[in-house]
């Protein structure tokens, strides 16, 4: 499946979840600020993505990915992401506004970074991942 095909399916899902016109959905659209998604909408979107694409999106998917790459696993201190976590988040989410990933950035702010293109890449990566052998 191409990125364009994933994007087009995602447009339809966002239309259903947010009640917006598909043409308002652009790859660079930030789900929370540009499209008006709330946390419950992101949860609904995750379920629809799982059903539509046959993949699993774990809660705190990006946090888990970043934590797995940090030596010692220190992700946050006093609610703010560590410098190591910020650097790994920059690598994990190259599509997001990198200027927001500064000292003092909080874990709770991660959803406010997520763009449509972040989800396209996540879906593609999961679709391309080797499937575990059937039991």
Report on this structure.
It is a single chain. By secondary structure, the chain is mainly α. It is built from 5 helices and 2 strands. It has helices at residues 3-18, 39-53, 61-69, 83-92, 116-128, and strands spanning 76-77, 80-81. Strands 1-2 form a two-stranded antiparallel sheet. Helix 1 crosses helix 2, helix 1 crosses helix 5 and helix 3 (61-69) packs across helix 4 (83-92).
Class of secondary structure makeup: mainly alpha
Strand order of the largest sheet: 1-2
What name goes with the CATH superfamily?
ACP-like
Q: What is the radius of gyration computed over CA atoms, rounded to a whole number of angstroms?
A: 15 Å
Provide the helix percentage.
40-55%
What is the number of independent domains?
1
Intertermini distance? 26 Å
Q: Secondary-structure element order, as H and E?
A: HHHEEHH
Q: What's the rounded overall pLDDT mean?
A: 90
β-strand percent reads under 5%
Task: Fill in the CATH topology.
Answer: Non-ribosomal Peptide Synthetase Peptidyl Carrier Protein, Chain A
Uncertain residue segments: none
Sheet having the most strands: 2 strands, antiparallel
What is the count of DSSP helices, taking H or I runs of 4+ residues?
A: 5
Layout of SSEs?
Elements: H1 3-18, H2 39-53, H3 61-69, E1 76-77, E2 80-81, H4 83-92, H5 116-128
Antiparallel strand pairs: 1-2
Short key terms for the protein model shown above:
single chain, mainly alpha, two-stranded antiparallel ribbon
How would you concisely characterize the structure shown here?
The protein is an all-alpha fold and 135 residues long.
């Amino acid at each position: 499946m191409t990125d364009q095909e994933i994007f087009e399916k995602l447009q339809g899902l966002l239309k259903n979840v947010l009640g917006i016109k598909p043409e308002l959905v652009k790859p660079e659209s930030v789900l929370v600020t540009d499209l008006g998604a709330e946390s419950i909408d992101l949860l609904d979107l995750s379920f629809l993505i799982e059903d539509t694409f046959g993949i699993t999106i774990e809660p705190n998917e990006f946090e888990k990915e970043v934590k797995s790459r940090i030596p010692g696993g220190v992700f946050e201190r006093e609610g703010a992401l560590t410098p190591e976590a910020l650097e790994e988040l920059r690598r994990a989410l190259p599509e997001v506004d990198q200027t927001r990933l500064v000292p003092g950035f909080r874990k709770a702010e991660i959803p406010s970074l997520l763009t449509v293109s972040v989800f396209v890449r996540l879906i593609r990566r999961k679709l391309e991942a080797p499937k575990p052998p059937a039991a």
